[in-house]
Design a protein that fits this description.
2 copies of one chain form a homodimer. Chain A is an alpha+beta fold. The first copy, chain A, has helices spanning about 15-30, 60-70, 80-90, 100-105, 105-115, 130-140, 170-175, 230-245, 280-285, 290-295, 325-330, and strands spanning about 10-15, 30-35, 50-55, 70-75, 125, 145-150, 160, 180-185, 190-195, 205, 210-215, 215-225, 250-260, 265-270, 310-315, 330-335, 345-355.
Chain lengths: ~350, ~350
């Protein structure tokens, strides 16, 4: 495909902070942005040229959206299959493609796909009932973690099962929905790899980053990650494989657990820009947001060189009330997402620090 | 004043690329933006939450704009005095203040103000008629340059007078408007200093930059500038003085000529972010756009450290047709302004290169 020229319009599904930062990056490249979101007054819509407020299953609105944009991407993986289908039927390109979205939005498919590509995961089993759960526990053993296959994020829809006895009622506790039981990994650290693949199949990778979570939510990312070059290469190779297999276009993130021996266990993938890549705004030659826009617009990928040691911390919920402190800190790059209400667990902003 | 909290709205007069980059910077700080511009579909309005399209003398629309914003700033100095007055009458703060705008929009007042603060300028004289012009030429000598006092930018409204004979008809050629005759400076180079002053009177300065013009339009900025530390300090001192005298809040730019002996001759000031400061987006710890937003929002100023040697080139008119070449250049940070039509002399974008 030929590159979308300046003045083209990027369509983004979702109105949150990722859409907002994608929109900012698109604007710097002379591209317009249209947001599609069910949310009124969304963070992304406030920095975009156009917004359609609609349900992700509203065919008429999706068709209108498709007509006004030159490509559609998404800030979240849980795009209903019919949404992508409606957009494609209306004649617009969707990047990354629906297959990538489908794999990433179902934990069972995702892990099966990882294994099929030689990428190790924790042991897992499909669970569609309490009986399934007990059988799976017998196979995998406790402790283990029961997760809904779909729509889980930031620790939602999960139940830890510490012993066989603790399984009682667990399937109901996660809503009696199709689920997956995953064995516990005694990992040393968590890392993620962020790669990009362009329309011409060129790929580029950011340096692997190390992540800390609190309460199931990313709290801190730092680079360099305390992993060997072999482990870093292995992560990059996995991302490359996944992107090739999916004929992927855009930025893709894979989160891994790192075991004591340096082995990687893939946890999940995100077919999009990712919280653990926010450091790239100041810390890399090209931000993940610009990189994603370049990829889906058919532009050449940008340079991914890391410019400094870097730390990114999330401002979760009431953390954001300390914005004055961060604004005063000359070493802190403060990013706030324009969310009207502070709620526990809500990502309100982030702070990046570089050690040059 | 207390700092405007996230969620506040920054009002910007003007819908061009400076407004667009200010809006992007405001969004990163969690602030909303409202644009006031006479232009439909302006570059800035496409990245802002709100836009009012109206004439700068439309009192009703200005009042409506004032009601929806928490502070008003401008991307250009030629804001009519009655515009600022109407906004202030409607109860909103205007930063920088109308006095600073008034000084900067009149070449005669500006140069008089420079001299009154001990800042050297080229010799100049007021010209309100052809007879004034001839008298001024007798005093200043040729070559000299006749400029309208108001509304000139990028070389517009100017006539070079190379000899006494060349003065014939010159006053009519610039539109027979109130003007100023300026003596020619045989300068070695052009530089600019960009400073900022916060609401608490704190100041911060970027490193002095060296500028090249072509056809009266900035074509290239580079750092470090080839000037001595003494000259750089002198420029900073001048900017400090001007900001203090005007009780200035925001980013201010002063352009100077540098003479062979290192002396500075002030050319003009811009009470705003400036083309010669675009390098700060990638090349400084805080961009001039974020700095201006911080200042007018009553936030602490950000760090101004220069991060690398840097070169910024403007994409003027058809230059922008080479966007694919710049997109391919891994060392180039490409910025495009979202202007629909390419016209000769029109600033369409810029490219920044860092040598780390």
């Amino acid at each position: 495909m030929s590159a979308l020229p300046p003045g083209s319009t990027i369509g983004i599904l979702g109105g949150g902070q990722l859409g907002r930062m994608l929109a900012n990056a698109a604007a710097e490249l002379g591209l317009d942005v249209a947001i599609y979101t069910p949310e009124q007054d969304s963070p992304a819509s406030r920095v975009a040229a156009h917004t359609i407020v609609g349900d992700y299953r509203d065919q008429a609105k999706l068709t209108a959206f498709a007509k006004r944009v030159d490509v559609v991407t998404s800030e979240f993986e849980n795009v209903p299959a019919e949404t992508a289908a409606a957009l494609i039927a209306a004649g617009v390109r969707v990047a990354p493609n629906p297959q990538a979205l489908a794999v990433a939005q179902d934990r069972l498919e995702e892990k099966t796909f990882f294994n099929a590509n030689g990428i190790a995961t924790a042991p897992f089993a499909e669970v569609n009932s309490q009986a399934d759960l007990e059988a799976a526990l017998g196979k995998i053993g406790a402790p283990a973690i029961l997760k809904t296959r779909r729509m889980g994020y930031d620790g939602q829809g999960q139940a830890r099962i510490m012993s066989a006895a603790g399984a009682a009622g667990a399937f109901d506790r996660i809503g009696a929905r199709p689920a997956i039981l995953e064995g516990f990994c005694k990992f040393e650290r968590e890392v993620s790899i962020i790669g990009a693949r362009g329309a011409s199949a060129a790929t580029a990778f950011y340096d692997i980053c190390e992540n800390e979570h609190a309460g199931g939510i990313l709290s801190r990312t730092k680079l360099p990650a305390a992993v060997s070059a072999v482990t870093a290469d292995e992560a990059q190779r996995a991302a490359f494989l996944i992107m090739e297999q999916l004929d992927y276009v855009g930025v893709l993130t894979i989160e891994f657990f790192v075991m004591a021996n340096g082995a990687l266990i893939a946890n999940e993938m995100a077919p999009r820009v990712h919280n653990s890549g926010h450091w790239t705004i100041e810390g890399a030659a090209t931000s993940q947001f610009e990189q994603h826009i370049r990829a889906i617009a058919g532009w050449p990928l940008g340079a991914t060189a890391q410019l400094a040691e870097v730390e990114m911390i999330n401002l979760i919920g009431a953390d954001v009330e300390h914005w004055r402190t961060y604004a005063l800190d000359e070493d802190a790059h403060l990013h706030l997402y324009g969310k009207r209400d502070i709620r526990p667990g809500r990502k309100m902003g982030h702070v990046t620090r570089l050690r040059r």
